[in-house]
Amino acid sequence: MEHEGVDKATAVRTLLKIGIAEWRKQTALKLLREGKASFAKAAEVAKLSLWEFADLVRQQGITWVNYAPGEIEREAQEALMAESK
Question: What residues contact 6, with CB distance under 8 A and at least 6 apart?
Answer without folding.
Answer: 14
